[in-house]
Amino acid sequence: MKLMWFHLMPYTELPDDFRERHPSVWVDIHSSLFDPKRAHVMYNEFMDELEYAATCGFDAICVNEHHSNGYGLMPSPNLIATALARRTTDTALCVLGNSLALYNPPTRVAEEFAMIDCISGGRLIAGFPVGTPMDTCYAYGQNPSMLRERYLEAHDLVVRAWTERETFAFNGRFNQQRYVNIWPRPVQTPHPPIWIPGGGSVETWQWCAEMDYVYCYLSYYGYKAGRATMQGFWDEMARLGKDRNPYRAGFLQFIGVAETRAKAMELYRGPAEYFYGRCLHVDPRFATPPGYVTEATQRAGLESQVQKAANANPVLGSTTGTRMQAVAREMEDIVDRGYVIVGSPDEVVAQLSEVATELNVGHLMLLLQFGNMGKELAQYNTRLFAETVMPRMKGLFSEWEDRWWPQPMARETRVTPAAFHPGALAAE
Amino acid sequence: MTQPETLSVELAVSSCRVWRRGTGRKLGFLAGFGGLPRWMPVLDRLAAQRQLIVPSLPGFPGAEGFRSLDTHLDWLLAVHDLLQQSGLDGADLVASSVGAAFAAEMAALWPSSVRRLVLIAPFGLFDEAEPPADPWAVRPADQGALFCADPARWAELKALPEGANSIEWPIIQNRANEAAARAFWPLGNTRLERRLGRITAPTLLLWGAEDRVMPRPYAQRFAAALGGPSEIRIIDGAGHLAELDRPDAVAEAALAWTA
Q1: Domains held by chain B: number
Q2: Is the pLDDT at A55 greater than 90, yes or no?
Q3: CA-based nearest residue in chain B for residue A298
């Protein structure tokens, strides 16, 4: 299986009384809370952590896109991924991803992803989320009633831009371009693997099946809450006649590993309570712009509420923002509910193997830095996981082929970036 | 309240419900934010003296389709066709909130299609110094207090009727909010201000004294830009949807203006 190291890049110095004094971590979070000189340190440490994860042998390092967000400092994950491309060699670079409807024209995404693919020698995973309501509709002003249509059209444009050999005119409903002809073009053919981070909407599952894309459920609420969604996904795959190849799916999980469970509880309490307490403090005003959730998904959500069925999916019809309202914010609850898997290496192996097999997920995206966790602890968590957990999990799903993994250029044809030696010229 | 006659107008985008009640000279009514999930008291008052015709705008309760309307021009033509086919060509129009923005557009683009105009706190303008409230960034529980002086009026409008489908009903209400968003997201600014000078129909601007969506100075902005005669009247005890809070006062003013 694939073990991937994911960074959200949370601002780590939100004040203790953030929830009491500020309405939201997202959209209208106050600028006075942001210190650019501290962010200089944070960005560089976060990138150290990502590079360290690559050194430790994780299959991929992952970044994502958020706007006006106190727990996600990457309005442009492409900038970070490009820097990482120069400082890593074989690790896949998973950009999860670019919210397509936010780019005008969307060929910008085709170009930037092609650049990352060229610079990295074909190591890019291209993620295309619709994007949360907070990012897309509020921070970026996109019309929620047209967001999905724009997203789907932008997707078509990007894929055509990557694959058509001749300059073409794109005559879309929302995008019209006379000359589409991107330079550079991606290394991977026909294009980098496309992964779709999504909530629990049936339409997204069907689309992933139709397009043969990886579906990623990036929830902050762990495997217990994710079970119903992944069950829904696999039921839909079965209904559509698709196999149960676990590499069709990705799943996000927070992890805190230490020598003992007691030590892990002690070490990760602060960062976990910071994340669930402060980072997920989103004003419910921004949760549900009308039209963001499709009517089919609203209907499914309302029906499951009405039926109160045992397998009712609490995610259907809800959004990132609505789910954040009911989150547990204290360590014992956080662990009980499975948001964060905390324990000794043996305990983490046992729980994470259960997650992978029960949810049937071949791509686990692991948050080993979260909340206000400092670099030292993040690297301890990362190293201990790599040394004690990873080797015992890697063999899972070896009977399946991962058809959705990057196909880089051969190792010997890829360049090694020159090391940077400031002042070297003067010394010569 | 007795129920009106219910007709239907077929547009390319949607089949649209048209309510009709009363006799006499025609008077059109376009609802505000949230639309008309049910008949309401102001319509009774208006229909007591006139032949009242109430078309549902695309996406609002009674008219399901609207998702092929991509541009402002698409919307304007759909509303124009709807009014024409409802028999409202050349009639007086009373319109509220988002509906009032469309009524103003009709009078600007097709001056002979509207005789006299009553606009209740119309959308369409945006002033950075005094921005309207964001009607799409509000918790469901707080909507009533945003749109009405008395939140109970909004709750009555939106309450699930006995025997109605409890799954479809909330979807219809969400759809109305989405339709408004499709036409007016994110600021409500359709650049209507550039066209107000074309409106020659005498226009009454009604504003709830407790409007928490559209600041009162927007009444003056409209009045100053209109190309024809206008008057501003403030309705005490009313919020943004003044016709919900004070149906008698709104109907009386509207009937007098269009007499």
Answers
A1: 1
A2: yes
A3: B171
* Nearest residue to A126 via CA among A202, A206, A187: A187
Q: Which residue of A has its CA nearest to B138?
A: A285
Contacts of A286 in chain B (CB under 8 A): 137
Q: How many percent of chain B have pLDDT more than 90? A: 98
Going along chain B, which residue ranges are E strands? 5-10, 15-21, 26-30, 51-55, 91-96, 114-120, 203-208, 230-235
Chain B environment of A289 (Cβ under 8 Å):
136-137, 181
Domain, as residue range, for B103: 5-257
Beginning with the edge strand found earlier in the chain, give each strand of the sheet holding B51-55 in spatial order.
B5-10, B15-21, B51-55, B26-30, B91-96, B114-120, B203-208, B230-235
CB A196, CB A183: distance < 8 Å: no
Q: Is residue A316 part of a domain?
A: no
pTM comes to 0.95
CATH for B187: 3.40.50.1820
Number of structural domains in chain A: 1
Query: Between A327 and A151, whose confidence is greater?
Result: A151
Domain extent at residue A191: 2-290+328-427
pLDDT in tens, A161-195: 999 999 999 999 999 999 999 999 999 999 999 99
Predicted pLDDT of residue A315 = 56
B 196-215 residues with CB below 8 A of A? none
Does A308 map to a domain? no
Which ipTM was obtained for this model? 0.95
